[in-house]
Amino acid sequence: MTKPTSTGTWKPEPGLRLGLLLFSPMLALVLLLVVTPVIELLAVAMPDGLSMRSFTDYFANAARTRALIVTFRDSAAVAALAVGAGFILAWTLLVSPSRLLRGLIWLAVALPLLMGTVVKNYALLIVLARRGMLNNLLLDLGLIDAPMKILYTETAVVLGILYTLLPFAVIPIYTALLALDLDMVRASESMGAGRFTAIRTVVLPFIWPAIVAAAMLIFVIAIGFYVVPVVLGGATSPFIATLIQNDMVQFFDLESAAVAALVLIALSLVAVVLTVATVGVDQVNRTAGAGK
Fold it and tell me: Alpha carbon 239 to chain centroid distance?
């Protein structure tokens, strides 16, 4: 119903002018913080105008190409491991009757969010060192005969990023599992399905959009990591962010740094677009909100 007023007919929906007025602060922020920096990056990366020379030179460099491959490979590994471990932890949180176990899991999930970046990485240095806690534990259990080289490898980088980003998988997947009716799982088991089959055929299809969106979120964050590859990987695991820092601070090569930054942006956009096309923008928004 409409409510007549002295100036005309009242409508619950805001008009176009009011909508544009309310939207203008966000539009101004997007133009200032997103569009303008990207335009400046393009101007630095292409000093000769609309020419791809800088990009062809960048990818012709073997070291930079290797950094791109390592960044993509390690970030994809982190995303896959995070959603795998995140589902196991989230499922345990949902079905475990033990309040102590659930409390310990929530503590483990929250701890990386409460620790500083420097503290986390130097703690992992102690854990992953040749005579660190992990190697000593494996030696004491008799699982290995000599200390393994974990530190300053891609494995250490993946573990370090995984430890930091695991909460971004557990929380969205747990939120999606809360909407699951466990009676469906019990019904499938009553019809002869085992627990693993019930999870594979009932639970995973139900929360698949949340898993895909969480993997995308983790991948996009992981490709921009800088401190973990430097501290835990060293020269064996160069990330694009590391090369950007070197180009800017050591070599003063702003053109290469701009090209590398645009490559990171392009990788992120491709991941986001593919995820939105797969699960929809609403699921991506819910996952990003749950991960905060």
Answer: 15
Give, in order, the Cα–Cα distances in Å from 285 to each of 37, 110, 217: 24, 21, 10
H-helix or E-strand containing 38?
A: helix 36-45
Alpha-carbon distance values, 126 to 132, 228, 273 (Å):
5, 14, 39
Name the residue among 275, 258, 231 with its Cα closest to residue 120.
231
DSSP sequence for 106-128: HHHHHHHHHS-HHHHHHHHHHHH
pLDDT in tens, 139-188: 888 888 888 888 888 999 999 999 999 999 999 999 999 988 888 888 88
User: Tokens for 154?
Assistant: 């891609």
Backbone φ/ψ region at 252: left (φ over 0), alpha (ψ -120 to 50), beta: left
Q: Is residue 119 scored above 80 in pLDDT?
A: yes
- How far apart (Å, rounded) are the C-alpha atoms in residues 98 and 106? 13
Query: Residue 194: is its pLDDT beyond 90?
Result: no
Q: What is d(CA 115, CA 112) in angstroms, rounded to the nearest whole number?
A: 5
φ, ψ for residue 134, nearest 5 deg: -65, -50
* Highest mean pLDDT, choosing among 166-175, 184-193, 199-208, 278-287: 166-175
Could you read off the pLDDT of 61-85 as tens digits, one per residue? 888 889 999 999 999 999 999 999 9
Tell me the CA distances in angstroms from 207 to 18, 38, 106, 212, 258, one per residue in order. Answer: 38, 35, 20, 9, 38
- What tokens does 78 get? 């982190």
